[in-house]
Amino acid sequence: MQATKRSEFPVISPDKGVTRQVLSDAPEMMTVIFRFEKNAEGALHQHPHLQSTYVNSGRFRFHIAGEDFDLVQGDSLIIPANAVHGCQCVEAGELIDTFTPRRDDFL
Fold it and tell me: Of the four listed, 29, 61, 78, 93, which is most buried by Cβ atoms within 10 Å?
């Protein structure tokens, strides 16, 4: 078993008004927190990882493979591997994302 202290990973700003920080990782899985300012966007992108997203706070509109989903605190969704996706933050908040396998590009 492995315990991780939050201070072990840096806070990165991948997009304007967005920060991300790895919370834990192993080769098979990774958990990451994203913080969004109101109206900030997670740019459309895709990756070979299966992704689970949990809305810890705030309101978001997700765009996944041509469909839109409005989520609020407590909602979650699964993003299939290789699906083009992104989001817009409607109300400032946090997302907790889990990726499998780990996103080595985040380390």
Answer: 93
The whole-number pLDDT of residue 34 equals 98
Taking alpha carbons only, the member of 92, 14, 21, 99 closest to residue 53 is 99
Query: DSSP readout, 10-44?
Result: --EEEETTEEEEEEEEETTEEEEEEEE-TT-EEEE
Measured distance CA(87)–CA(81) in Å, rounded: 16
Q: Would you tell me which CATH number, out of the four given (1.10.3720.10, 3.30.565.10, 2.60.120.10, 1.10.260.40), belongs to the domain 31-106?
A: 2.60.120.10
Count of helix runs (H) and strand runs (E) in the chain = 0, 8
pLDDT digits (tens, 9 = 90+) for 19-43: 999 999 999 999 999 999 999 999 9
Chain Cα centroid distance, residue 55: 9
Is the pLDDT at 78 greater than 70, yes or no? yes
| pLDDT for residue 1 | 62
